[in-house]
Amino acid sequence: MKKIILVAVVLLATSVDMQAQLVKFGIKAGLNYANQTGSDITINSENYDKEAITSYHAGLIAEIKVTDGFSIQPELLYSTQGATYKNAFEEFKNELGYLSIPVLAKFNFNKTVSLDLGPQASFLLSERKNVDFKESETFEFGVAGGLTLNVTKSIFIQGRYVLGLTEASKDADIKNSVVQVSAGFKF
């Protein structure tokens, strides 16, 4: 009986060790260079030009190894996006705070570099604006693509472009787009 328990403990320990190698958790944070694409905004028959804003993102990641050259990386991020609108007389900033959930397929070229591609769902959590602006959509769907550079086994740097495929506003033809540069740590 003691041998059976010992064998079961050894098998369980081996299984836990193998699972730990298959899934890694981590944190990341970085800068966003965000803009909104689409038609110009018109308020009271005044046209406004759009300019990009610099903002931030931060959150949690999990990397699930499928094969040596392929893994899946779901993330849970808080990301601020939007744009600055201005004309000859005034300027205002429309900043949207999203809970973004990208699920990326990671194609590893080697142990250092990977190509990351996948869909992203975002849920609007906050909206900061200094003008009476049209209401923003509460859900956004987009696609993300970029590269990851593993500096060490635990530290990584990422560059990514996220293109919104759905409208960011209920009454305006605009979509979010953002370039993200991140650094992170995997446990």
What is the CATH T-level topology? Porin
Count of domains: 1
CATH class: Mainly Beta
Q: Count all strands and give the number.
A: 10
Gyration radius (Cα, Å) is 21 Å
Give the amount of beta strand, in percent: over 45%
* Gross morphology: elongated
Helix content estimate: 10-25%
**What is the assembly state of the chains in this entry?**
single chain
Series of H and E elements: HEEEEEEEEEE
Question: Span from first to last CA?
Answer: 37 Å
Which residues sit in consecutive blocks of at least 5 with pLDDT less than 50?
12-19
Protein name: Porin family protein
InterPro entries: Beta-barrel_OMP_2, OMP/PagP_B-barrel
Keywords: Signal
Pfam families: OMP_b-brl_2
Task: Tell me about this structure.
- The chain is mostly beta strands and 187 residues long.
- It has one domain (23-186): Porin.
- The chain has one helix at 2-22, and strands at 23-38, 41-43, 46-51, 53-67, 70-86, 91-108, 113-129, 139-150, 155-164, 174-186.
- Strands 1-4-5-6-7-8-9-10 form an eight-stranded antiparallel beta barrel.
- A hairpin with a 4-residue loop joins strand 8 (139-150) and strand 9 (155-164).
